[in-house]
């Protein structure tokens, strides 16, 4: 039997406590599965309050950097969060002190992933982050191991359960965005800074990590075209449903001849597709490989149990001696690729309200036609106060052509509201 694997855990919040529970409950299985004991030697948090799990037998370190460099720690488990500050300082200190690191911290990796991966690999250590993307769904393992024989052609998914919860509640309970947001907040589903969720930032962190692994590129979070769900209205949701679609905060990453497309924005997906049927706080990641075709992974994207399950997957790999580069290939071989400044062509959903004037619709159609955007389907709803809501689904077009048409629309004088344009993603 090998020596025990000794963990130092920094952060005793939702995820940290979940990891401690699994290790306490499953000591025998862990030993059977890895051939060695997995033990916690030391822990750290800001305060020494009751956590609902026994902490006796673990040394206490107020300073996570000290914890990260202790002689009796083999693996530093970083579960504090934050892109910089103590999380980054202690991760760097652990790697430099010859420790492996497991983290759930998408913000830190999305901002500093390349630098930290280079450091880890330079020190001969591993830095693992299964829990940072889509909670309990083993998507990093799927990409770096199960699908390693493929060229990944596209990654697409719903990666923020709170946004999906809000959009689902708007549709199913006929709530406004503000009402659904307040409900999600009341249930504790939103981060302390809700903009991280509804602004799409948290999901964009995850997408940037998946893109790096999928396309062998350096993580480029600032290359994600980002739009949150704050402008989605109940009318959009109803009218999209009327046309056979659902609205989701959708992440898409794809390598094109113009560079890497990374986009996180509200999109329409067919209501009958797996993504269209995804309800509530669940996550779904769809991976497309040149040999395997399409793989759909679905599961809990957050929460104590699912996230701790993913942390344990990394710990168990280390205990078993599986040592993979952070992003699936050595960090010094990851390419720098330009970001494509617009996505691949797609059909678009356009919603606008027109003044009730003769020829108004014709003027809109001309504007679109002049920019090379052709109309696939159009629906006009009943006039209210001399204003007519209009819905248009275009044929596949580039975002640039659509924007050219949208820029010219105000000059027609027929618009009673700013048009809403949402991409339709075929999946
Ligand atoms: N919660 C989820 O469902 C989920 C899912 C996926 C990924 N993650 C990621 O997992 C990480 C942890 O999330 P969480 O939800 O468990 O957070 P959390 O409940 O807020 O817990 C954070 C923990 O870190 C401790 N901490 C913060 N600053 C510290 C410092 N300077 N020194 C020592 N300890 C410090 C806190 O101590 P005190 O308790 O004393 O304040 C707390 O125990 C984050 O990176 C998050 O993005 C979370």
UniProtKB/TrEMBL annotation:
One Pfam family named in its UniProt record: ACT
Broad EC category: oxidoreductase
Binding residue positions for NADPH: 106
PROSITE patterns: ACT
Keyword NADP: yes
Keyword annotations from UniProtKB, A to Z: Amino-acid biosynthesis, Methionine biosynthesis, NADP, Oxidoreductase, Threonine biosynthesis
Sites where the protein binds L-homoserine: 191
Domain of life: Bacteria
Pathway(s) it belongs to: Amino-acid biosynthesis; L-threonine biosynthesis; L-threonine from L-aspartate: step 3/5; Amino-acid biosynthesis; L-methionine biosynthesis via de novo pathway; L-homoserine from L-aspartate: step 3/3
Residues at the active site: 206
Swiss-Prot/TrEMBL GO biological process terms: methionine biosynthetic process; threonine biosynthetic process
Presence of keyword Kinase: no
Residue intervals of the ACT domain: 349-427
Molecular functions per Gene Ontology: homoserine dehydrogenase activity; NADP binding
E.C. number(s) listed in UniProt: 1.1.1.3
InterPro entries for the chain: ACT-like_dom_sf, ACT_dom, Asp/hSer_DH_NAD-bd, HDH, HDH_cat, NAD(P)-bd_dom_sf
PANTHER family (alphabetical): HOMOSERINE DEHYDROGENASE
Family named by the database record: Belongs to the homoserine dehydrogenase family.
Record protein name field: Homoserine dehydrogenase
Species classification: Bacteria, Pseudomonadati, Pseudomonadota, Alphaproteobacteria, Rhodobacterales
